[in-house]
Amino acid sequence: MRLTTKGRYAVTAVLDLAINEGRGPIALADIAERQGISLSYLEQLFAKLRKCGVVSSVRGPGGGYHLARDPRTIHVAEIITAVDEHLDTSRCGGAGNCKDGGPCLTHDLWMDLSERIHDYLTNISLQDLVDRRPDNAECCATRNASAGAGKGRAKQPLEEHEPRPAVAARS
Predict the structure, then answer these.
(1) First-to-final CA distance of the chain
(2) Could you give the CA distance from residue 134 to residue 87 in angstroms, rounded to a whole number?
(3) In a 3-state reduction of DSSP, which class is residue 55?
(4) What φ, ψ does residue 26 adopt, rounded to 5°?
(5) Torsion sign across C-alpha atoms 97, 103, 106, 110
(6) Rounded distance, CA 102 to CA 78, Å?
(7) Which of 17, 89, 127, 138 could form a disulfide with 72 if both were Cys (CB 3.0 to 4.6 A apart)?
(8) Where are the alpha helices (DSSP H) in 37-75?
(9) Contacts (Cβ under 8 Å, ≥6 apart) of 131
(10) Which residues, in sequence order, are CB contacts of 84 under 8 Å at separation 6+?
(11) Reported pTM
């Protein structure tokens, strides 16, 4: 699968935005600091995300970004596609010219896998990811308890977890 850093960073940054949505417009510098992503790289990604209607911006002092829609309606596949990533597991990019100008023996297998990955990511919303976070209950309780006190409180970056295998390996 050709999911590069661009797609991973876009999903991470938009998820950070979703988590902090209730705080008003979020500056890219804040996301860059929390997630360890270059500010200039985030600016490039967010220009594409804005064009595709995933995020919207607020100019001026106190400006920043917020989600353009409800997080239940923004899906991971949409974010990845917005930054020009393609979920493709084939060598030929889906063109069917992987072996002597025609499809290789396993072309259909890889095309089916690409479709399943895309379908899977299309069914995961930002809200699903916010709700799935292991520290979600603790985080929200802490945030609600300290609302208004300590605006400069440092936030912890999201942790990346290895995906769980879909099927147990057979021996």
Answers:
(1) 25
(2) 27
(3) strand
(4) -105, 125
(5) positive
(6) 30
(7) 127
(8) 39-51
(9) none
(10) 6, 48
(11) 0.72
Q: Distance between CA atoms of 65 and 71, rounded to whole angstroms?
A: 14
46 to each of 21, 50, 122, how far by Cα in Å? Answer: 15, 6, 20
Token reading at 124: 């995961």
The CA radius of gyration of the chain, in Å to the nearest whole number, is 19
Helices 39-51 and 5-19, axial angle in degrees (round to 10): 80
Indicate the helix (H) or strand (E) that contains 32: helix 28-35
Q: Which tokens sit at 85?
A: 């990533």
Give the torsion through C-alpha atoms of 132, 159, 150, 56, to 10 deg: -70
List the one residue out of 37, 41, 67 whose CA is nearest residue 75: 67
Element (H, E) at 130: helix 126-132
**Which residue type does 133 have?**
R
CA distances in angstroms from 18 to 11, 74, 102, 165, listed in the order given: 10, 10, 44, 26
Residue 77 has which token pair?
Answer: 């596949």
- Cα–Cα distance measured from residue 78 to residue 122, given in angstroms and rounded to the nearest whole number: 7
- Residue 107 is inside which H or E element, if any? helix 107-122
